[in-house]
């Protein structure tokens, strides 16, 4: 068992490494399509922020302060000399802001102005405007109008190039979050498909289901944070909604996993955190759709709550592992692996949260240059440890159940015949007394057991007992219970529809005994029996029904004894 256990652990660790290598491989240069055209990045911008101008600024390095609703940011430049390139576009990204593009003081492109006028949040967007070589030397002016408080800081590069190659360049830069997000989403779907089967047939545990939700939430957040859905969906607001909704659902999915840990002593605390976070999420969504306050305004609050709950959860779990209860014989390896994964995820997530806030509020270039690669690595590690933890828990639980089943079998099985013993039979009769289903109890007494033991030996007596047990099993195979009450006494209990079959079953029993006796050379099988129905007892107690059946069995036994005496002329 220990060897098997170690082998399974080795397999799970190997799978974890395979998954890690699989994800890491996508961070290579697998997309190696060479570009036919150069991608041009426009620099040396003149930037005006609420009337204050700055010249010769590199937009990717210049620290545009945190922009808020009401601010007006203007970027001015001159389009350099352009070669004749097919499908050439000028492209730039905006964060939760409306924008207008002027070329030689003529408005040529606008995005989000109608949304801004309504007071709604403007989704993130890739803004593309087709140009050609005739635009060389023309003046370009980009207006940015933030749609929320603390909308963004810094600014992404403004680029000119072939539209296909610009998209491919973006996908190359985003290949790690792209395939990590797809992996987590697909993995979450697979776990969700498997979880109902594992819930109903193994342990009735929600761990795998909650793991699937966490994996899916993180996959959605990674893809939407990196704006993958803007390229895939015609409506950009879908990406923004998915980004913030999945972000707020991440701690809820982790807490649901913690709450599903039935063994932990802190389950109630995790349940309370889960209810609080779920309540806050619902309130945030309601406030957003009622146009009272949009859900992008709670990012900092979310970061504080998530970090606080994460630190508390880690400390509680760590304390529980280091100080197990007296009733706990040992610490489950699955909990250790889960804690390792949670600590890795928390540490990596906090690194990215701190890095994001520092970039947004303090660093040169602002949040435009931030990423969540550490969180992605932590997420993949956490998901893998969650799955490994679940299967280790299942293995441990299954082993415990098998051991308990074996012990129960030994406690309630007659060692000689393999039938149910008296203790178990009495348990069943107690349960029948508390139920209302109809039943019949048949009491058997095996004839001539003492005589065979005395004349032929106990080995033949044991063979008689085993043979009769086999006859009972073959005849009453569909009964509720077949048991040996001790010595030469046996019992059969049939319930519900089988009650009506009692007479036919007893006739089959007589036929089977007759068949066995034709083959037996040393002794004859013979049994006395009596039966009673549940409705024959005024109190409905199964033990009274059994006593009635037992009395009728002794009446039959006495009749047999009297017949034998008359046959021998002794009566």
Mean pLDDT over the full residue set? 82
Find the structural class using helix and strand composition.
Answer: alpha+beta
CATH C-level of the largest domain: Mainly Alpha
Name given to the CATH architecture of the largest domain: Up-down Bundle
The total count of helices amounts to 16
How many domains? The number is: 3
- Radius of gyration, CA atoms, in whole angstroms: 39 Å
- Helical residue percent band: 40-55%
Describe the secondary-structure layout.
Elements (H helix, E strand, L loop, with lengths): L1 H24 L14 E3 L2 E5 L2 E6 L15 E6 L9 E7 L2 E7 L2 E6 L1 H6 L6 E6 L8 E8 L11 E5 H11 L1 H27 L5 H19 L2 H5 L4 H23 L7 H23 L9 H24 L10 H29 L11 H39 L10 H12 L5 E8 L2 H7 L2 H18 L5 E6 L2 E7 L6 H18 L7 E7 L8 H26 L4
Antiparallel strand pairs: 1-10, 2-3, 2-4, 4-9, 5-8, 5-10, 6-7, 6-9, 11-13, 11-14, 12-13
Helix pairs in contact: 1-11, 4-5, 4-11, 5-7, 5-11, 7-8, 9-10, 10-11, 13-14, 14-15
What does this molecule look like?
With 571 residues, the chain is of the alpha+beta class. It folds into three domains: 2-32 and 174-406, Rhopdopsin 7-helix transmembrane proteins; 41-171, Jelly Rolls; 422-567, Alpha-Beta Plaits (2-Layer Sandwich). It has 16 helices and 14 strands. The chain has helices at residues 2-25, 113-118, 163-173, 175-201, 207-225, 228-232, 237-259, 267-289, 299-322, 333-361, 373-411, 422-433, 449-455, 458-475, 502-519, 542-567, and strands at residues 40-42, 45-49, 52-57, 73-78, 88-94, 97-103, 106-111, 125-130, 139-146, 158-162, 439-446, 481-486, 489-495, 527-533. The strands form three sheets. A six-stranded antiparallel sheet has the order 3-2-4-9-6-7. Helix 1 packs antiparallel against helix 11 (373-411) and helix 7 runs antiparallel to helix 8 (267-289). The longest helix has 39 residues, at 373-411. It is rod-shaped. The model is unreliable at 326-331 and 399-403 (pLDDT under 50).
